[in-house]
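Marked as duplicate of an earlier ticket. Keeping the data here for the record.
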Amino acid sequence: MSQKEDPGKLTQRADEFLQVFKKGAEFTQELLRENERLRFQLVQVEEQGRLASCAAQALQEVETLKSQVADLEQEKQEILRRIARVEAENIDFANRYVEIEGENNSLANLYIATYQLHSTLDFRDVLQIISEIIINLIGGEEFALFLLDENTGSLQAMAGEGVVLDRLPAYPLGHGILGTVASSGESFYAATLDCAGPGCDAPLACIPLKIKDRVIGVLAVYKLFLQKRCFADIDYELFTLLAGHAATAIFASKLYSESERKLTTIQGFLDLLTK
């Protein structure tokens, strides 16, 4: 028969068991806390990794966007250059259109003027029409038309505007600008369009009136209505066309006047004979 254990020992053993169980429970709780801490650190590491990956992706996207912005900026600059070039071309075309329109108007006016020149054989009417052309097309304010006197070999003022014809000298061939132009058949243009005045031998322009190679007179322009700094290309063309047509009209009207005068003389002589 076994003996009963001492109640004190049982209590001690129970306390020891409780202590062991308590330590086990504490260890278990510590393990759970450590596990939770490790899980939290793992989540932080994963989050940091995710953020780092997002940051790297964001940086890559930023670099891509910067490259796209640079490409777009380059395209914008190229488009702006093209626009500027197109605008410059449009301005050039517009200026050219205005210039051509002015030339067409001048040529149309010259056509009308030349038609008027050849519409009459009266010498005085021809000189008047030439003066009107110089005023309206060239813009001449002061000018004179000199014709060559075959007998004296000098230029005599026959018509003009803004000048006193009787005060203009006669220019022998080869003397002064007018005489040189008449002898050479080459036009003269002053370097600047300052008013030279009819009293001196320095006109703004001096144009020979020629029929082929024969000079029958010169046109001297001393002052213009429009204050230009230089003659335009259309002015030179107008001078050239006007000189040829004016010379032809003057020559034809002089021949007609002489023939009319001779015819009148012959008719008078015949009338005397018949009486």
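See parent ticket for discussion. The mean pLDDT is 83.
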